[in-house]
DNA sequence: GTCTATATAATGATAGAC
DNA sequence: GTCTATCATTATATAGAC
């Protein structure tokens, strides 16, 4: 999926990589959508573990940004988002996880920011949305060789997050 | 492409919609990639006209944001970006236009911001990159029914742009 | 459970008539 | 230029042997 896109992930090819016949996959996952949903559930379960670990880290803001800028994970996330955009059957699954992930991030950011005089300039859910936007676009564009503005955007986000972290540490 | 994704755009289906045989398309565009590149060039040419119009508007900042949040155009742009990510043959074409679009935006933003005491908090190319990121993620997520944080992010960006516009108008 | 064989449909691309 | 007919490949999915 990472190398050739979601459309290249077919029952036959997954079966071949797994070393089984395609009919066996159909036995466990009747349709191709069922297989893709199973793959997504497996991935998102792993992602959730890593996200929670980041949010529980001593420096959650920095850890969250590191989580979001992991290129393999984010590229896969974008791929599934594109898939969900055109496959109604798995849309709900992707939307549900994305909303849950955002709510987890929002909860932690709220705890960090609301408890003191720290202000991020925007609400916690807004901050989560903005960080996701920038990391996704960095990964999408990098994939095709677009680079202008990337260093600047990365530096801007990181300095804003550092400022946020400092004021949070000063306040507690 | 908008409704079913780039993978659903085949030579045969384009021919059917156009009311010609698929071999005629192969006559003009030998390979499927050639056809997709031609489609992209047609689209990006139109986009460029509209982008330039926005940058020449009385209020370029507001017009640029309107251009970027046009959902049909941005959704198509994301689709081509995903396509380019997995089709080496058309990658260069997409990257070239994206870089050019960003440079045009950067030039206009520089003119607005550098000429006076106005500071956006980040460099012009950074601002262009951030706006693109947010608008793309708004459109991608909306497509699958994700909405949390959208209202907040939109309001945040728009108030930041309004602040920028006011200080720019005050300075000139 | 796991396989081979197969039905059906769609793909990119080409040959060759006109 | 534009078409019909076709090749080779791949896709999802099912039937049925073991």
Could you report the average pLDDT of chain A, rounded to the nearest whole number?
96
Radius of gyration of chain A: 19 Å
The CATH class designation of chain A is Mainly Alpha
Number of helices of chain A: 8
User: Residue share in helices of chain A?
Assistant: over 70%
**How many beta-strand elements of chain A?**
0
User: Which structural class matches the secondary elements of chain A?
Assistant: mainly alpha
Query: Uncertain regions of chain A: pLDDT < 50 for 5+ in a row?
Result: none
**How many domains of chain A, as an integer?**
1
Could you tell me which chain pair has the largest interface and how many residues each side has?
A: A-B, 50 and 50 residues
Percent of residues in beta strands of chain A: under 5%
Quaternary structure state of the chains depicted: homodimer
Describe the structure.
The structure is a homodimer of 172-residue chains. Chain A has 172 residues and is an all-alpha fold. Chain A contains eight helices and no strands. The first copy, chain A, has one domain (46-171): Tetracycline Repressor, domain 2 (Orthogonal Bundle), CATH 1.10.357. Helices cover 78% and strands 0% of the residues of chain A. In chain A, helix 5 (71-86) packs across helix 7 (124-144). Chain A is elongated. The termini of chain A are far apart. At the A-B interface, helix 5, helix 6, helix 7 and helix 8 of A face helix 5, helix 6, helix 7 and helix 8 of B.
């Amino acid at each position: 999926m990472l190398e050739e896109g979601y459309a290249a992930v077919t029952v036959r090819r997954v079966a071949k990589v797994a070393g089984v016949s395609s009919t066996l996959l159909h036995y466990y996952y009747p349709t191709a959508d069922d297989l893709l949903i199973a793959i997504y559930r497996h991935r998102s379960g792993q992602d959730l573990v890593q996200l929670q670990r980041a949010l529980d880290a001593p420096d959650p803001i920095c850890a969250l940004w590191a989580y979001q800028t992991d290129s393999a994970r984010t590229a896969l996330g974008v791929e599934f988002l594109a898939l969900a955009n055109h496959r109604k059957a798995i849309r709900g699954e992707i939307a549900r996880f994305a909303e849950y992930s955002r709510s987890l991030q929002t909860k932690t950011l709220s705890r960090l920011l609301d408890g003191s005089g720290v202000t991020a300039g925007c609400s916690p859910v807004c901050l989560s949305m903005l960080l996701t936007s920038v990391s996704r676009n960095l990964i999408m564009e990098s994939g095709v060789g677009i680079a202008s503005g990337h260093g600047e955007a990365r530096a801007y986000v990181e300095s804003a997050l550092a400022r946020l972290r400092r004021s949070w540490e000063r306040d507690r």
